[in-house]
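Single Protein Entry

Contents — chain, fold
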Amino acid sequence: MTATPATGDLLYSEIECDLRATVRALLEKRSSWNAVLTRTESDQPTDLGLYATLARDLGCAALAVPEDRGGAGASWREAAVVAEELGRAVAPVPLLGAAVATALLLELGERELLKELAGGEALAGLALPFSASPATWTSTLDCSGDVLNGVVAGVVDARAADVVLVPAGEALYAVRARAAGFRRLPVVSLDMTRPLVDLSFEETPGQLVARGPEVAAAVDAALRIGAVLLASEQVGVAERALELTVDYLGIRRQFGRILGSFQALKHRLADLWVLLTQARAVARYAAECAATGAADLPVAAALAQAHCSVVVQQAAEECVQLHGGIGFTWEHPAHLYLKRAKSSAIGFGTAERHRAALARLVDLPGVPGPS
């Protein structure tokens, strides 16, 4: 696969459209909403078989990794297209956490572990809370002699990870799943399609990946990539929620009329479409900045999350409300989209935190720090 040319064109390329079609066809076959709901009620909420197909057979885990480092040689733009499709299907796969781990290893120039991740041979996660955001995250672990102690709460996509990347002090460690003293404690979370875990380290040996001030900068960069991909995922969630609502209002009759014929409902859907169009634009720009390493990436990522995390919640809420009684039932997919929207709204920083970061980045005066 060749990378999308850095032309600044935010329209989807032919390669991106082909990739979207392939991923969507797979998800429609393997991850229908009925299958997703059934999995959330099981003791295996994460679909590792589907992840293996995406990572190994389709090469989705390797899209942003250069060919000389075992990857597909594409970019974060293509990875963002995959994220959109995963959002549309609320697919229970840990590709977001794996992408953040990949971005971190890319920033640090690590090769051996990166090759495992790119080939789908190993699944990795980052030992930071899902709510951690660039430039504001802190490590809660003690490290002495490459031995780790402490707990990291609310980690995403680490429940089934083969290796966890652990920032501690000025160092980054890799901890294998079977390492001594390492435990994963599942926690009850709102979004059952994206389970969280608490990671516990008790005299756990870690393999040193990197040490020095560049580690913190690399973690910031990786979290920023995570925010970019999450924004694209939110676009996919919002798009599908709007589609479901439009389809329903086009067939549901009440008061002797098709509900979609009422002007007030048309206006609500039109307003939501405009917001979604804006969200797609800022998400695509952020993905383009990530793909090209543009200096505007911090601004683009903060803007994308500040906007998309609000739009996706509104789209999911409208989906539930405009479906009426059936939208509140367990047997309808609306609740899956609402829960994904709500949980993603805190991922890699809330909208408020990103707005505060954006204000500082563009030198707005008198802006308080994030709460």
